[in-house]
Design brief:
The complex is a heterodimer of chains A (435) and B (342).
Chain A (H helix, E strand, L loop, with lengths): L9 H4 L7 H4 L7 H6 L3 E6 L3 H11 L5 E8 L2 H15 L12 E3 L3 H7 L3 E4 L6 H10 L3 E4 L7 H16 L4 E3 L7 H11 L6 E10 L13 H7 L11 H4 L2 H11 L5 E7 L14 E7 L5 E8 L6 E8 L2 E4 L3 E4 L4 E4 L8 H15 L6 H20 L3 E2 H5 L38
Parallel strand pairs in A: 1-2, 1-4, 2-3, 4-5, 5-6, 7-10
Antiparallel strand pairs in A: 7-11, 8-9, 8-15, 9-10, 11-12, 12-13, 13-14
Helix pairs in contact in A: 4-5, 7-8, 8-14, 12-14
Chain B lengths: L11 E2 L1 H9 L15 E4 L6 E7 L2 E5 L16 E5 L2 E4 L5 H8 L9 H13 L28 H15 L8 H9 L50 E7 L4 H5 L7 E2 L8 E4 L15 E3 L2 H4 L19 E2 L3 E3 L5 H12 L3
Parallel strand pairs in B: 7-11
Antiparallel strand pairs in B: 1-8, 2-3, 3-6, 4-5, 6-12, 7-9, 9-10
Classes of the chains: A alpha/beta (435), B alpha+beta (342).
């Protein structure tokens, strides 16, 4: 399938034609022309968990001349295991050039790592993302940035301010919503946007699965360390799983609609995963979103083992139905188109290939605005399930309910502290305020 | 991640085969008598059963001739192979069976730490359970009565080990030779029902007739030895490391219970083709190497999961139980070799 550039997300997010490569060349921070011939692109990874490690390896697998020069993480043990895994996977000493003095540890480690690089990979827990994006964009770096882009509305507002700055600086920014780089979705969107299922009037989005890891608190850990090592279960760091995982499926429906919801209401709770080690997040959310044209998206996400599992999307149109797996049905349920994906490129590799190709050859990708607005879609959903009230987009995005603190340190108390019995305050619909 | 033993490139006979040849006369089956019967293994703590059918040992021609349509070069040259008798699962392992193993314990984290320690944990912890999969491993194609897929060969073997520990009987994956012997069921044709591809539709699920999904086990016609879905539905893990030139190297040897000892986590051999394969892979002799780059491509983390492939819902497995009873020491040695345990 040779349709790599036939439909990329920037075409609808920017709402304008793709800028031709030649126009961009002069303004690129990296001096692409000279660069392509002689210079090695320097990469830093900030956030050395499993995903940061995976992203670093993919960045090092691009055809361009690249090297990893710096790493940053809050924890030295995570950084070292990540380094070892990268070396093992890449197997090319030239491409991994991180000496001990360029391994930075702690809450401020990102600054020094970013300073040393041309391209930065931002893969810490998402609560830190606005801070890291701001620093990297101010320092004129190209960016591969994992989703989601924030955990609260204040973070989203910060990222949206950075959209224009990054565009003026012509920084290439790929956001790790990798379905945008996955052939099956690109092929499907091409057909949906050409009207093959008519007007889309309804959609379903699912991330029902078994949940993720937990690292029970160890003696000697401060509360900050315990939360940082279990960041998934604390909202200031994670945003809850509707934000951290389900964003992928919500984002697909936004892509289908080429728009973002105007309101939502929902319900959720914490029924099975109730032990203190699971922090404060819910184990299930159900949200009904509405778009400006009245389209309804039903969204469900669950972290409970042993139940129905599904990760995916369905779109209901006036002429047929589509499934995110790459199938279009007519109104009688007959398959009218099916994408066979056996020879498709790996979307996680593809997003890096396109980023570095744009950097070197003068293309332009900036996923930041869509990344921020799809993150906000998920945050608004969480605000609805926690509060039980119906929310308007404008109110949600302007909420001053700030989760992320402005001071960090191992002895600093995180914004949510345990009760005397070790439990954490749990959001209660009908009582919890989110605006 | 641990690396498999760097043993030399060699093909060894499975040791119980050697013991069998040396220690006993022709049809001795010391726990079953001479005419083993079909039976139902009841999964511990449940009313779920696995149907096992006896497959008498014998000698057959493994691989396909040059003249076979759609034949790949790794299927030749043809070799004469002898396998000892065994019971084989009449059906592919289904989700209801596999989930008894998956959900016994609560959350297991799928992190660097657990993966590094996974094999040691296996010793300490009796049997380690699968980590939660990244996505739904059935991809909505059905659970109860439908074949389990998406597990790695490690995940399939760990199910066998768990069941073996529970029952005191060695259950394992079939070797490639056992698998092909059972699939052929005494025939030497492209399919167990002859050479007519037009008959494939009623005998197996391929991309042609599956409607992009696996189906309940046992819906198609079984082969002459009463085994269902050997071709199609889910492709099936075997115990063997994949070598494209395996038959060339083995040619001329006396081959009794041949087995390619694992040299690395991949590639291992998968047999039978699947609902997602074109019919050319649904042949008795067709061999498919596991492909971690493709089959794990949407696993976003490094290290990737030992347990789950994000992109191979079309690979499952079925069980084998050798007629020849093994001692606990032999069973321990078997797992040590196959799971790279200390």
């Amino acid at each position: 399938m040779n349709e790599k550039h036939s439909f990329t997300r920037r075409n609808f997010v920017k709402g304008s034609a793709t800028v031709a490569g030649g126009v961009m060349l002069g303004g690129l921070p990296l001096k692409s022309k000279a660069h392509a011939a002689a210079e090695t692109i320097k990469i830093a990874v900030v956030g050395c968990g499993g995903r940061g490690t995976g992203a670093a390896v993919q960045a090092l697998n691009v055809p361009q001349d690249v090297e990893l020069v710096a790493m940053a993480d809050a924890f030295s043990d995570r950084l070292e295991s990540s380094y070892n895994n990268i070396v093992e996977k890449v197997g090319d000493k030239k491409r991994v050039n991180v000496n001990d003095k360029n391994k930075f540890v702690g809450f401020d480690a990102y600054k020094e790592a970013i300073n040393l690089a041309d391209v930065v990979i931002l893969a810490t827990p998402p609560g830190f993302r606005p801070i890291h994006l701001e620093y990297a964009i101010n320092a004129d770096k190209h960016i591969f940035c994992e989703k989601p882009l924030a955990t609260d509305a204040a973070g989203i507002r910060k990222v949206l301010e950075l959209v224009e700055v990054s565009k003026q600086k012509k920084l290439n920014i790929v956001v790790g919503l990798q379905r945008h780089y996955q052939t099956v979705y690109r092929e499907l969107m091409k057909r949906i946007h050409a009207g093959e299922i008519g007007q889309v009037t309804g959609a379903q989005a699912y991330w029902d699965g078994g949940g993720v890891w937990v690292h029970p608190k160890q003696p000697g850990w401060t509360e900050m360390e315990a939360q940082m090592r279990n960041w998934y279960y604390f909202n200031w760091l994670c945003g809850d799983h509707i934000v951290e995982q389900h964003i992928h499926n919500l984002d697909v429906i936004n892509w289908v609609k080429q728009d973002y919801p105007v309101s939502c209401q929902g319900m959720g709770g914490r029924q099975v995963r109730v032990e203190n080690k699971f922090g404060e997040i819910y184990d299930h959310h159900y949200v009904e979103y509405r778009y400006a044209d009245g389209t309804i998206m039903n969204s469900q996400c669950r972290h409970i083992r042993g139940c129905f599992n599904r990760v995916g999307e369905e779109m209901i149109g006036t002429k047929g139905k589509a499934d995110g797996r790459g199938t279009i049905y007519d109104l009688n349920g007959n398959v009218v188109w099916k994408h066979r994906d056996e020879n498709d490129p790996n979307p996680y590799q593809q997003e890096h290939n396109e980023l570095f190709d744009a950097i070197v050859n003068g293309g332009y990708i900036n996923d930041l605005e869509n990344g921020a607005k799809s993150t906000m879609t998920a945050i608004m959903g969480r605000m609805a399930t926690y509060s039980g009230v119906e929310l308007k987009w404008e109110d949600a995005i302007n909420s001053d309910n700030i989760l992320v603190p402005d001071k960090f340190g191992w002895d600093v108390n995180p914004p949510v502290m345990p009760n005397a019995d070790g439990s954490y305050p749990i959001p209660m619909p009908g009582k919890t305020k989110v605006l | 991640m641990k690396v498999y033993r760097n043993s030399i490139y060699s093909f060894i006979y499975i040791f119980w085969g050697i013991l069998y040849v040396v220690g006993t006369d022709a049809m001795a089956q010391d726990d079953t008598g001479e005419n083993p019967n079909p039976y139902e293994e009841v999964l511990p703590g449940s009313n779920i059963t696995i149907s096992m059918v006896p497959i008498q040992g014998g000698t057959f021609t493994m691989g396909s001739p040059d003249s076979e349509a759609d034949r790949d070069t790794d299927e030749g040259p043809q070799i004469e192979v002898t396998v000892d008798g065994f019971w084989m699962g009449q059906f592919e392992i289904t989700w209801d069976q596999y989930e008894l193993f998956m959900y016994k314990e609560n959350i297991k984290r799928d992190s660097i730490l657990i993966q590094d320690d996974l094999l040691r944990d296996t010793e300490a912890d009796a049997i380690t359970r699968p980590s939660p999969p990244y996505e739904d491993p059935s991809f909505g194609m059905g659970k109860y009565g439908y074949p389990a897929g998406s597990m790695t060969q490690f995940g399939a073997l760990m199910f066998c080990k768990w069941l073996s520990a529970k029952t005191g009987i060695l259950y394992r994956l079939p070797t490639e030779a056992e698998w092909e012997y059972a699939c052929r069921a005494g025939t030497d044709t492209t399919y167990p029902f002859g050479d007519d591809i037009a008959m494939l539709d009623e005998n197996g699920w391929s991309y042609e007739n599956s409607e992009y999904s696996y189906h309940k086990v046992g819906e198609k016609i079984p082969n002459a030895w009463n085994l269902y879905d050997m071709l199609g539905n889910v492709a099936e893990w075997t115990l063997d490391h994949y070598f494209a030139d395996r038959y060339e190297i083995m040619e001329g040897d006396e081959l009794v219970n041949p087995w390619s000892e694992p040299q690395a986590l991949d590639p291992r051999t998968v047999r039978g083709g699947s609902y997602d394969d074109d019919p050319d892979k649904l042949r008795c002799a067709s061999r498919i190497p596991s492909n971690p780059d493709k089959w794990k491509q949407r696993d976003p983390q490094i290290p990737k999961s030992f347990w789950w492939n994000t992109d191979s819902p079309f690979v499952g497995f079925r069980l084998v139980r050798p007629f020849k009873k093994m001692t606990q020491e032999e069973i321990d040695m078997f797992w040590a070799l196959n799971l790279d345990e200390e």
